[in-house]
Design a protein that fits this description.
two-stranded antiparallel ribbon, 2 strands, Arp2/3 complex 21 kDa subunit ARPC3, about 0% strand, disordered N terminus, mainly alpha
């Protein structure tokens, strides 16, 4: 039996073995980290860069299936009830506004990252790069689709994608390097 097939159940059992209080604490910590990353604006060209999308993808990969979804669902609920966890705004109306597709994309992308990580698909550089690129594609795909319904495709691409490409490339590269560094440091 290949080594990969032997280690995948071990990965799943390790995540499922966490006691519920520890899972709850990890989800709360994840919500706090995502909220903080949404409010950290780094000067960048052509628009300031928040660390939110990279943080969400990285947490999804680290947390794995189940915990990633629970954390992002908690994050969205926190924003829906008015807690200041989003980059700007909060409340149920915010969840139906222009950024709603991106917020849904956060949840789907974190789920995708958790799935890829839990199944051992991110053990090598290639799998990690593909997973992070797929994750950011999901965020922008859903975000742009929703935004285009409101302003049209030309404006959605011009305002909801193009200005963010340099910052997203930087965040994805940083998230990939952090994930790989953590993976290399993990005891085997």
């Amino acid at each position: 039996m290949p080594a990969q097939a032997k280690t995948i159940p071990a990965i799943r059992s390790r995540q499922n073995a966490l006691p519920m209080p520890l899972k709850l604490a990890a989800a709360v910590l994840g919500v706090c980290v995502i909220a903080a990353s949404a409010h950290i604006a780094i000067p960048f060209w052509p628009v300031p860069m928040t660390m939110q999308s990279g943080t969400i993808l990285l947490l999804g990969a680290i947390y794995g299936s189940g915990l990633a979804e629970a954390t992002l669902a908690s994050y969205l609920v926190a924003g829906a009830i008015g807690l200041p966890v989003f980059a700007s705004g909060a409340g149920l109306a915010y969840l139906a506004g222009p950024t709603a597709g991106y917020l849904l994309g956060f949840f789907v992308a974190a789920s995708l990252m958790g799935f890829a990580s839990s199944r051992g698909l991110m053990r090598g550089w290639t799998g990690t790069i593909v997973a992070f690129l797929a994750g950011i594609t999901v965020i922008y795909g859903l975000g742009l689709a929703w935004l285009a319904l409101q302003v049209g495709w030309n404006k959605a691409l011009a305002g909801g994608l193009v200005p963010f490409l340099p910052a997203e490339a930087t965040k994805i590269a940083m998230a990939i390097l952090l994930y790989r560094a953590g993976h290399m440091l993990r005891p085997r």
